[in-house]
Amino acid sequence: MLAFGNVNADQRLHSGDVVLVPLQNSEINTEFFYKNNLITTINKNNKHYLLFGIPYYSSVGTNSFVFTTQNYEKVIKLNIEPKKFGSQNIKINKYKKKSQELLERIYSEKREIIRAKKIKYKHYPDINFMIPVEGIVTGVYGTQRYYNGKKGNYHNGHDIAADTGTTIYSPSPGKVILTGDYYYNGKFVMINHGNNLISIFLHMDDIHVSEGRNVDKGEPIGTVGNTGLSTGPHLHWSVLLNNTYVDPLGLVKNNKVKLDN
Questions:
Q1: Per-residue b/e over 225-235, b at no fewer than 16 CB within 10 Å?
Q2: Which of 50, 179, 227, 240 measures 20 to 30 Å from 197, CA to CA?
């Protein structure tokens, strides 16, 4: 069986945006996957949708995204418009040549994050996010970054500078699925807001929550810091949908696009 959903022609979409894909009544209890990654299901005004994050490297023009279940495929066609994300040069004094021991630590931490992303928390998420900390925006989603003159990955989150010790709040209810003090992340908290909608908070000074604990929207989860590979006190906040980094502000502004059936 093949089902299609097509976005309205007047809706403008870009890489990193979030879209709502309506579900039929027969699909409500079905798990959908995109490239083997679970797609978040939400309940909005007693209607069910898939909450899909458009991958950053999607091509400009019409894209067909194939959602799979155990029994069939659902194909969604989206028209992606070009967007200029800009660039940013960053000097990191903490950077150093990595020893074999350090490389092994980094690989181990990466595996722990991959495992945490696969932890299921079956709960419909609250997708009206709040900003997790007050401060000055110093980095936005999608910017091409250069570290000490060398091209790096695109910026996958939203940076907010604030004094060390400033309280960070959970932008939405959820379950803490991982915390730690990693080489790149520094002290961090990873929250599954439900059905694999995930937030990650990096470079913290203190962590106030523990793994496995449920947190409320607006509950303190820690404080701003300068730990890990960071250039100054700030919060780096990333959001993942279908294992794809999306612009966190798309959820704060409730800037989601509804597809036609």
A1: bbbbbbbebbb
A2: 227
